[in-house]
Structure formats: C-alpha cells, structure tokens
Design a protein that fits this description.
This protein has one domain (3-9, 20-190): P-loop containing nucleotide triphosphate hydrolases (Rossmann fold), CATH 3.40.50. It is built from 6 helices and 8 strands; from the N terminus they run E-E-H-E-H-E-H-E-H-H-E-H-E-E. The chain has helices spanning 34-45, 61-73, 87-95, 106-116, 120-136, 157-176; strands spanning 7-8, 23-28, 50-54, 78-82, 100-104, 141-146, 179-184, 187-190. The longest helix has 20 residues, at 157-176.
Length: 192
C-alpha cells in the first residue's frame, strides 16, 4: 500500500464516534500503544457507566505490577469487570446499561481459554460466542488484541497453537468489527 493511502486517526472526534453501538478492534504488537489508544478513544465517548473488561489473571509479581499500572492509567469513572474466561457473558451482562466497554485483551483471554479447554473446538466456540455478543451490543466496544502473526514461526506446538488461535480470533472479531486499527510504534493506522 502506498503511503498516501494510509489514513491515520488520533481521536474519536476524527472517527466521528458517538454513543451509538460500534465495535472497534485495536491490534498491534507488544508495547505498541494499543491499550492507551483504546482508552483514549473510549474516554471521548464515555458516560456514566464505563466498563473495563479485564482478561488478565496476574500470576506473578511483575504481572501484578503491570495490572496496577494499567489501573492507575484509567480514570476512576471506569468500573473493572474481571472476565478471564466468561468474556461473552460479561459483554452480554453489561452492554445493555453501559455507555462504553473496553476489553483488554483478547490474546490473554485466548490464553486463558487454552488453559481451561482441552479441544480446539471449544476455544473457537467461545470466540464465536464473543462475536455474536458483539453483534448484539447496545454501546461502543473497544477490543484490544496482540497481532502475533508477524514474527517467526514458534518452535513448539503450544506456542504455535496459541499463535493460530489468536490469529483466527483476531480475524473473526475483525470481520464483525465496524473499525479496525493497527498500532505501530504508538501510531494508529486505520485498517477499516
């Protein structure tokens, strides 16, 4: 794609977002600015009921510190809903009354599902359930996910399986999203 074809967005006002239902997938590599960008957009359309659906289960001190940093970046108007496995149910439960929902992040959710489910079909069924709930939501939803397919092929089966699930999940959610943004070095690039 020629550089003149790339369209950059920096704010929700440029995206012409309002309180209507819209699903926005924000993808990128590690430390690309995905979460900060999604939070900035969601802050511009937020209201009285702002839901942050967290999928992380911090298992060590470093991850606990990361979660704390993310929490401190959010304004107090955000209510955190822990959804490490039951993400479709959390979207269903909160989208009726919420003004905006952020999901951070799909790749941790996929990892959690892999740890719980033995077969591939059950993981992909949950991805389908999430997509179906996104189709029914009544408020804007911003989903953060890692783009994991741009690197080398992982050396072990479990890592390849995770990469494949994350890639399939990203494709499935992107196909249902109104907007898709790819974050590169803190710069949002509009894909759709």
């Amino acid at each position: 794609m020629a550089p003149s074809k790339i369209r950059l967005f920096t704010s929700a006002s440029e995206l012409k977002m309002d309180k209507k239902k819209e699903v926005h997938l924000v993808l990128g590599g590690c430390r690309s600015g995905k979460s900060r960008y999604a939070l900035g957009l969601a802050d511009e359309v937020s209201g009285r009921v702002n839901i942050f659906a967290a999928t992380c289960v911090p298992a060590d001190e470093e991850m606990k510190a990361r979660v704390l940093r993310h929490q401190q970046e959010r304004d107090r108007k955000w209510t955190t809903v822990e959804a490490p496995l039951a993400l479709p149910g959390a979207i269903r439960k909160h989208s009726t009354d919420a003004d905006v929902i952020i999901v951070d992040c799909l790749t941790l959710w996929i990892s959690n599902l892999m740890g719980r489910h033995e077969n591939d079909e059950s993981v992909m069924e949950q991805v389908g359930n999430l997509a179906n709930e996104l189709d029914k939501t009544n408020c804007p939803v911003f989903l953060v996910s890692n783009e994991v397919g741009s690197g080398v092929v992982p050396e072990n089966f479990m890592a390849r399986r995770f990469r494949d699930f994350a890639g399939f999940a990203n494709q499935h959610i992107a196909s249902r999203a109104d907007r898709v943004t790819w974050m590169v070095a803190g710069i949002p690039v509009n894909i759709r």
